[in-house]
Amino acid sequence: MDKDNDLIKIIVIGNTLVGKTSFIHRYVNNGFRPDYKSTIGVDFAIKQVQTSTNKTVKVQLWDIAGQERFTYLTRAYYKDAAGCVLMFDLGSVASFESVRKWKADLDAKVRTQSGTLLPCILVANKSDKSPASVKDNDIQLMCEELLFVGWTKTSVKEGHMIKESMSYLLDIILGIS
Ligand code: GDP
Ligand code: MG
């Protein structure tokens, strides 16, 4: 994190179609476009937010548009990241199983400035769809085993738990919680 201008880089990773681009769009513009086109390469969006201690920071959310098939990313993408959102689709067991690979790649390639694991939340998206194919208990176990800072269900479609999950992560990054 670049403390001088308070720009906080957060990367959003996970399998294709789980809702990453929609999540970024929802958080930054508060919109949901079912026809949102995936772009090729790396994309990012910036949002100015108030932290829970009323500090203003700029959050830069990085999308991995179109590179999900590799399940690993270049170091350049991870460079200077302060936190991570790792997303899967509650309706896709395959996307949940990939969480392990994404987290291993993340932990192998990036650390915080003090050498600890990058704070990463596990986001179980599409909670509006039922029935879910992935059980809460399995998510909890994965969260503990792989040392995520927490997990939550979201529905980007319904705008459920988007801001909340981001402020939870931001507070950890900024050392507030
Ligand atoms: P990405 O490949 O991870 O960037 O996924 P996208 O953001 O492109 O979304 C993939 C598809 O899932 C799109 O058709 C979205 O409209 C849909 N989608 C994203 N979030 C949700 C959600 O919370 N609920 C439902 N039902 N669909 C969603
Ligand atoms: Mg996308």
UniProtKB/TrEMBL annotation:
GO terms for cellular component: late endosome; lysosome; phagocytic vesicle. Keywords: GTP-binding, Nucleotide-binding. It comes from the Eukaryota. GO terms for biological process: endosome to lysosome transport; phagosome-lysosome fusion. GO terms for molecular function: GTP binding; GTPase activity. Belongs to the small GTPase superfamily. Rab family. This is Ras-related protein Rab-6A. It comes from Elysia marginata. The lineage of its organism: Eukaryota, Metazoa, Spiralia, Lophotrochozoa, Mollusca.
